[in-house]
Amino acid sequence: MFKRLITLAGSLLLAACASYPPLTTSTAQVQYRSVRFADLPGWSAALAGESLTTLQDSCRSLQGRPQWQGICTDSRAIDAANPQAVRSFYESRFTPWQLSDSGKDSGLITGYYEPLLAGSRSQSPQTPYPVYGVPTDLYVLDISQEQRAQPQLVARRGSGNRLQLVPGKAVAGEGEVQITLADFVTDNRTRALKGRIDGNRLLPYYTRAEIDAGKGRDKMPVLAWAEDETELFFLQVQGSGRIQLEDGSFIRVGYADQNGHGYKSIGRWLVDQGQMRIEEVSMQSIKAWIAANPQRRAELFAANPSYVFFRQLPSNDHGPLGALGVPLTGGYSVAVDPRYIPLGAPVYLATTWPLDGSPEPLTRLVHAQDTGGAIRGGVRADFFFGFGAEAGMYAGRMKQSGKLWLLLPNGMTPAANP
After folding, report:
1. In principle, which of 64, 220, 310, 381 could form an S-S bond with 132, CB 3.0–4.6 Å?
2. How far apart are CA 30 and CA 377, in angstroms?
């Protein structure tokens, strides 16, 4: 289905590209350079009709922002079936900015999809693996970069599972929570600490290995029970999916929270263990390795301490909800690092399909509608392939080099938030 979309590109008409004065802006790591639409490889053959409807989805979140109001309003008057009108709209309203990261204008483009699992509402010998909701004892504390440098922090309980920092204190008093930063693994990307309260101390939440061993289970609501532990692991990697019950009905689940431990690639672990070469790593090859080495499955999964908790989503024919809060569109939504690419913005992607032999170009105007724990950096994206087995085939093999151009409303300058 997705490869077929390439052949439709030839129907797009050429149009004069807008010209903008070259500008450059940067952060310590990521640089943005304004370019012309004519500089975007394959722009004249971009599937802009579907891109427009994806922009209209993004506008559900963007339309209240001043710089996007006019664009969102005017986009609804454009006929998505008229390629020339769609291209003229983007070229007249947006400025493309090429991204580079640490001096490199190419980066890693991976893929994800919405998987389908077999399961049940109740535990049984056929469905023994729990799909957990957010634990009731998981607490979250937002911290700033300056606060990360302090060895001791004090917080008090806020609403729900939130903790609130007590400014100026280093020693907890009665009813307060002591946080020792050395207990947590933090870096300049850590915006929140996640943990559990033991006495008056906040400790890191349980790792994947500890949760799989039964730690904290009495605090974790179970949304469903899955048949296959490997498929459940990859559901967590993808962040959303559907579970088909015995009666043929479906439960849709999506990312709700995470245990606070950083994502570690099990593919990298297999390479480091000498089990496969880096060029061999894919979702399919990992599943094959697990099938051949079932006695090492727990060891492999434990290499990734991150654990994702889900929430049940409304069942419908649309894609799963991304971090922007709108349904994802297969082939036209991407997950990005929101420190460098604002959620909702159009992004022009130039990469290749993950095909054996000679890869074919994949150039497309997509939209930043999601995030991911492994999506870090300015030239980094995760391409959403959609739902089902074919989408999973492409997503599991997607590990391509690619380039990104951020499209912003004319007059709006990129601003990164490290």
Report:
1. 220
2. 8
Q: What is the pLDDT of residues 338-355, one digit of tens each?
A: 999 999 999 999 999 988
* Same domain flag for 329 and 388: yes
pLDDT top residue among 136 and 149 = 136
For 318-339, letters b (16+ CB in 10 Å) and e give ebbbbbbebbbbbbbbbbbbbb
CATH code at position 75: 2.40.40.10
Instruction: Write the single-letter amino acid at 179.
Output: I
**99 and 19 assigned to the same domain:** yes
Helix (H), strand (E) counts: the chain:
11, 21
Question: Concatenated DSSP letters for 354-394?
Answer: --SSSPPEEEEEEEEEE--TT--SSS-EEEEEEESHHHHHH
Range picked from 126-140, 311-325, 378-392 for highest mean pLDDT = 126-140
Kindly indicate the confidence band of residue 28, based on its pLDDT and cuts at 50, 70 and 90: low
Q: Which of 387, 247, 223, 237 is nearest to 318 (CA)?
A: 387
For 60-161, where are the E strands, in sequence order? 94-101, 107-114, 116-120, 129-132, 139-142, 152-157
Beta-strand pair 399-409/346-352: antiparallel
Domain that holds residue 106: 4-112+320-409
Spatial contact of 137 and 257, defined as CB atoms under 8 Å apart? no
Please report, rounded to a whole number, the percentage of residues in the chain having pLDDT higher than 90: 73
Question: How many domains does the chain contain in total?
Answer: 3
